[in-house]
Amino acid sequence: MAEATIIYDRLRWEEKQLYEKGSEVGLNVKLVDVKERPLELTSTRLAEDISHVVLQRTISHYRGLYYSFVLENQGHYVINSFVSSLICGNKLLTTQLLAKSGIPTPKTYVAFSQESAVDIMEKMGYPVVLKPIVGSWGRMVAKIINREQAESLLEARELLTDPQQQIYYIQEYIKRPPRDIRGIVVNGRVITAYYRYQPEGDWRTNIARGGKAELAKVDGELEDLMIRASNIVSGKVIGVDAMETSDGYVIHELNNNLEFHGASEVSDVDIAKEIMEYVKEEAAR
After folding, report:
1. Domains (ranges, CATH) in the chain?
2. pLDDT tens for residues 194-208?
3. 48 contacts: CB under 8 Å, gap ≥ 6
């Protein structure tokens, strides 16, 4: 029987589903908590208790990133790869590659000082959106409506000890319906998509912040954009976030370690099973 390992740092609903569906499709699935399993950096051999094919599901971006790097260099095949996770987990890198590949994405600047960040916001015109380059669930994402607010937020970030917080990722505010669209792409195929409606009193659409999910229909244009976006990062199991504008769709984020509980409640597709069917294909090679 083909086997695969799921690496994690907390067993959420998604990891439990993936484990169950793996068994259902005839895959021998191991669970490894990365917090409890150190890796030998000087080893160049496959880790004996970790399968050749690994599905990376850690909540921590950095745990998953570096664990993947070590496993890949020891000969394991990791889904998603170190490079894919590195790019998807960093909004600066993602935006640059989307633009270079001709995929429509919101106009975005990066500034490396408080003064230049304010200057570019003034030139762009308010409102603008300020985001950390690494982060999820809408944390530390701010819609800035004037110079006073901009200076206040930037002063606060200058005091933070994390040097990444002094890299200012500034994006135009997109006028859109009160929702965005997340597509789930597995091995180059959009298996499902859903709207994420912003909760009352918030402009962000994250399900983790109370957003509501609703099944979405994907037309040919959006399907093509989502597949292309997934391909530029060589992503195998990727969440692609899009917004509707008067000029068409824009792709604004990619997610290499997506949560899909909310999507599963509205989709007619068994998302966990689709993912594990693909993992089984790789494990059987």
Report:
1. 3-86+278-283 (3.40.50.20), 108-172 (3.30.1490.20), 175-268 (3.30.470.20)
2. 999 887 766 566 655
3. none
